[in-house]
Design a protein that fits this description.
Largest sheet: 9 strands, antiparallel
Distance between the termini: 93 Å
Mean pLDDT: 87
Number of helices: 3
Structural class: mainly beta
Low-confidence stretches: 1-33
Strand content: over 45%
Radius of gyration: 24 Å
Helix content: 10-25%
Number of strands: 19
């Protein structure tokens, strides 16, 4: 017998065993979040975080108001009940597994909401096509509505498709009915939405869907906008677009010029703006507060020529959110 051939057979067998084990581990990891949920978790307040494991300090995701998360298991640790949930990293449209305290969310029964397969079928093409269906991540949110009751809004996407979709679903006689939708381009491998939450901003129980949406007008001109949408007449209506941050070094003005009102300078050539949004309750409504700095730059100069520290309020006027004078 050829010793070389004899030695190759166990080596080949070992390689096959390793490949089989690796494939099984990858399949297991890929399908870890695929089983049907045993319950649902609804996030109804700020400050809820998913941890890498029960009682761990490591945060894997900050959960936003209105998020509806599939739950797969429960575990008691230090007199606290924890739920294993799946959420979605909106930057990359990939699933993230974590643990959340059951006391910090509202628990819903497993049969109250449709599983992924039903959502994909109701969404239609391209999400029902095999490769897209296997890779599509679904982020769910419950949005309050006086007429239709809570409606489920799903944000679907995967890096293998050219666009993502925001899709509304209604429950009608126990069946899932697709409502209005918006397709958003998945440009340069960047998700068009990086944050979603639901809040009652105008009172009366009709919640708004609030998103953070990056934009780019060129390599040196980009930023992030806060976009507020309401469901009106069975369609999405944009009621606010508020810049959060902006960076425009595509060109520089010949001299320093500061416009009024202050927010008119956000995104202008030669400016760099960094801000944050707060929601402040006033009576039955909410005021949107933007706080930040607008820096004015000159070509070739490292430090800004001027800096404006700005606090601006946007309030509901019955039709949209408008900046206060």
């Amino acid at each position: 017998m050829n010793n070389t051939s004899y030695m190759k057979q166990p080596a080949l067998l070992l390689i096959l065993i390793i490949m089989s084990s690796t494939s099984e581990e990858l399949a297991s990891a890929k399908d870890a979040l695929k089983p049907d949920p045993t319950l649902w978790c609804l996030v109804t307040k700020d400050g809820v975080e998913a941890r890498s494991k029960p009682n761990d300090k490591k945060t894997v995701s900050k959960l936003r108001r209105g998020a509806l998360l599939p739950g797969y298991a429960t575990k008691n640790s230090d007199k606290q009940e924890w739920v294993q949930i799946a959420t979605v990293d909106l930057d990359r449209m990939t699933p993230v597994s974590g643990w959340v305290k059951s006391s910090e969310v509202e628990i819903k029964a497993a049969n109250e909401f449709p599983v992924d397969d039903k959502v994909l079928v109701a969404s239609g093409r391209p999400f029902v096509e095999d490769f897209a269906a296997e890779n599509t991540a679904i982020a769910r949110f419950l949005v309050g509505s006086r007429e239709a009751g809570p409606v489920m809004v799903c944000y679907l996407g995967t890096e293998v498709l050219s666009h993502t979709r925001m899709q509304v679903f209604y429950q009608s006689k126990g069946r899932l009915k697709a409502g209005p939708s918006i397709d958003l381009p998945f440009a340069e491998m960047k998700s068009p939405i990086t944050r979603i939450e639901a809040r009652d901003l105008v009172g009366g129980g009709d919640e708004c869907l609030i998103t953070h949406e990056p934009y780019s007008a060129g390599p040196q001109n980009s930023g992030i906008r806060l976009v507020v949408r309401r469901l009106e007449a069975n369609n999405f209506k944009v009621v606010a677009k508020i810049p959060i941050s902006a960076h425009n070094f595509a060109s520089f003005p010949p001299r320093l010029e500061i416009l009024e009102p202050d927010e008119a300078n956000i995104g202008r050539p030669g400016t760099d703006t960094k801000g944050e949004i707060e929601f402040v309750a006033r009576d039955s409504r909410t005021i949107i507060v933007w706080k930040g700095e607008i820096n004015f730059h000159a070509l070739g100069r490292e430090r800004p020529l001027e800096t404006l520290t700005v606090e601006k309020l946007w309030s509901w006027d019955g039709q949209q959110f408008s900046p206060r004078p």
